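Q: Okay, next protein. This is NBD/HSP70 family sugar kinase from Nonomuraea thailandensis. I've checked the sequence twice, so it should be correct. Can you predict the 3D structure?
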Amino acid sequence: MSQPRGPLSQLRRGHEELVLGLLRKHGPLSRGELGKRCGLSRTTLYDILAELVTSGAVVTATSQDAPRGRGRPAETLTLNPDAGQAIGIDFARRALHVAAVNLAHEVVGSASEPHDADLPWEQRVELAARLVGSLTGTGGGTGTGGGALRLGALDAIGVGVVGVVGSQAAEEDESAPHPAQVLLRERFGVPVLLDNNTRLAALGEAIWGAAAGGQDVLYLRLSHGVGGGLVVGGSLHRGAYGLSGEFGHITVEPGGAPCDCGGTGCLETVASIRAVLDAFRAAGGRAADVPELVKAVRAGDRAALTLLDGVGARIGEVLAALCNAIGPSVIVIGGELAETGGALVEPIERALHDHVMPVSRHRVSLRRATLGEVAGALGGIALVLHESPLLSRYPAGPDLAEDPIPDKESR
């Protein structure tokens, strides 16, 4: 996707996005209806539509060859689902998730595959390319959906990665792109937008998932790491230096276990997958992974239930403090540990009720996430489209748009 560089090109691109946005929101519209809704002059609108039709982004909904005459319905225009697709990729700690949507915002498919935590970036990107290929029915992996994957009118990739995005250590070059950006751009030859994967999962849940339509949402993911995202006043919040949503590094046990962030006693040392499984085994339980822990919970294992009750209480206390500071109307709990169900969610809810301000107790809705593993990938797609009201005041994020796309011969 070539990026506009001059002000006139930017203005024209803005007009194109306006027209495309109206067709996404309202479905097929006639030229007259589009004119009333977009506010552009007739000449400008018809010029924009001619280019969109020529490029294949927009098609006529009625045949131009139909006989003309009194009573014939006006020709309408609609989005062409086959014009192109956008890809979202979530590079989680130990797995990779891919999703794709077409120009009409229809989900083409999704795919996921686990991998070792120390897998090099070159191999992660190779795996991503294979999973993208699986969406076409021509590659391996566990993809769902079919049809040829064409990176046309929406030729861009939104990527989520673990850790802070938008700020690097002082000794690093702050202008240096992330390895995933470089490798994906070389592989696909399209712009790559990057953000924290948990924050993108929050965006996905707030658009399509458990908090759809929420104006003030707090999302917490309990996975190999503990993090989250905030929607404040109807906008996704990134924070200074990209540090919003680092809930896993709130201290819950002063002087407790060391955390990867350099602190001690962080929520992540209590409520991450590794911390919970280690504590369960120390209590005499047997579980190599979360599915085995879930089995123990369902079997009524006393050690598992007692452990999760304590972990849930700590989480609930943190959420109550965040609620008192931020005031969300919806809290969404996601991540693999949420699969333990009521054994974890109920003590979270009790602690939240006990510690949140009394005026808020019956106004905060606690919900389980609904999008599963592909929430971050879907959030990456939303970042690429950048059309949700949640992104109206959100920075586009680092990308490689200003660098020329290498010729295929030089890749």
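A: Here is a summary of the prediction. The mean pLDDT is 84. The domain at 214-370 is CATH 3.30.420.40 (Nucleotidyltransferase; domain 5).
Q: Noted. On to the next one.
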